[in-house]
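Pilot study result, target chain (62 residues):
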Amino acid sequence: MGNNKQIRKRIAGLAAQILIHQNKIKQEMRKAIPDVGLVAKWKKEIRAWQQELARLKKRLKG
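Predicted structure:
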């Protein structure tokens, strides 16, 4: 991934995925018996994406 435009596009995409998963977690936790395995999976994915976001933000020029 080279230029800032591509990096910013990837950052926006990851941020959107994080929000989607956070909403899924909220919905799942509202259930009488939430699927904790699924919630754990989503949280793990969110952590990975947050790490990727931090890495990408360091690569932005300027």
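One observation from the pilot: The mean pLDDT is 94. A full batch analysis is planned for the follow-on phase.
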